[in-house]
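Title: Comparing notes on inverse folding

I've been comparing how different people in this forum approach sequence design from structure. To keep things fair, I'm posting one structure and asking everyone to reply with a full sequence. Here's the target:
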């Protein structure tokens, strides 16, 4: 299960380039349920995400879904890449430790989404997601705003459509 919160940012953290980063390209074969392919540096994955059979979170603190991630060969990824709906998303993901407990994944988008930046944090359970105190550089919580979901971002042509 994946439990996450997503935030706009007020400003980038200092020394962003000192953190581990991944160059990501991803596309969607289906959006309900989500079936995504992703190239992360030189690793390739097929991911299935679904909210089917998930109970609603009455507090509305974090997004929760079932998630299964499987490795792909480069050849399988390239074959499926030609079959994605809409656009491929390209972004740089910085992995930023927050305290001793969490990793903030700051995504800086490229191509038609150049200039879009947001951060997400994954949690082991909904209680920890609710108790999370974001660092000062985090902005508005957009966890439930569909415009910040990657499968939605793959369908738009520019930031003007946000």
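Reply #1:
Here's my take.
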């Amino acid at each position: 299960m994946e439990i996450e919160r997503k935030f706009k940012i007020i400003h980038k953290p200092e020394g962003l380039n000192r953190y581990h980063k991944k160059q990501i390209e991803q596309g969607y074969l289906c959006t309900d349920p989500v079936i995504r392919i992703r190239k992360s540096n030189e690793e390739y994955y097929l991911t299935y995400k679904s909210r089917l059979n998930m109970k609603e979170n009455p507090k509305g603190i974090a997004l929760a879904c079932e998630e299964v991630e499987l490795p792909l060969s480069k050849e399988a990824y390239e074959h499926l890449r030609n079959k994605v709906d809409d656009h491929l998303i390209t972004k740089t993901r910085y992995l930023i430790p927050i305290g001793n407990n969490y990793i903030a994944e700051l995504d800086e988008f490229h191509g038609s989404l150049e200039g879009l930046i947001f951060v997400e944090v994954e949690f082991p359970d909904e209680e920890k997601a609710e108790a999370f105190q974001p660092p000062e550089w985090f902005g508005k919580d957009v966890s439930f705003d569909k415009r910040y979901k990657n499968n939605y971002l793959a369908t738009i042509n520019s930031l003007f459509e946000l």
